[in-house]
Design goal:
- The chain folds into two domains: 2-70, no CATH class; 78-153, no CATH class.
- Helices cover 32% and strands 16% of the residues.
- The protein has helices spanning 21-29, 56-59, 78-96, 105-113, 128-136; strands spanning 2-7, 13-18, 44-45, 63-64, 69-70, 99-102, 122-124.
- The strands form three sheets. A three-stranded antiparallel beta sheet has the order 2-1-3. The chain has a two-stranded antiparallel sheet with strand order 4-5. It has a two-stranded parallel sheet with strand order 6-7.
- A hairpin with a 4-residue loop joins β4 (63-64) and β5 (69-70).
- The radius of gyration is 19 Å and the shape is globular.
Length: 155
Amino acid sequence: MIVFDLVCPDDHRFEGWFSSSADFTEQGDRGLLTCPVCGAADIRKAPMAPAVSTRVSERQGTTDSARGKQVANIELPAELKDAFAKIAKVQAEALKKSTWVGKKFAEEVRSQHYGEKDEAPVHGKATKEEAASLAEEGIAIAPILFPMADPDELN
């Protein structure tokens, strides 16, 4: 596995694990990579500095001196794990009550907003440009916080 530092156009940084560099490229081409903060799909590799250490003690629990924060390979605090679990549970429950509309998401929410269709909870895919256009029209949307498999691509 390869761990890449990733970044979206809004400079949200996060990491992704891939079987190879080609796997990263393939997932990006298929639109499977999105920012966990804002939902942007224009994800690129962030510049990464190699972590070189000469002593075992330096490799365990190292800190990023520029920011004073713990870095990779440490366990998340229990409170953070609990918060993520709660958010994931709420998202899963919301998605059960929502209809997958795939790439027609922008079209669907726009038609609901303008009264052409009855309002109903939906989820799907939107490009960054579509999301920006919806926001400009005053149509409230929100990204799905945790990645989910495209129902059209499941076995």
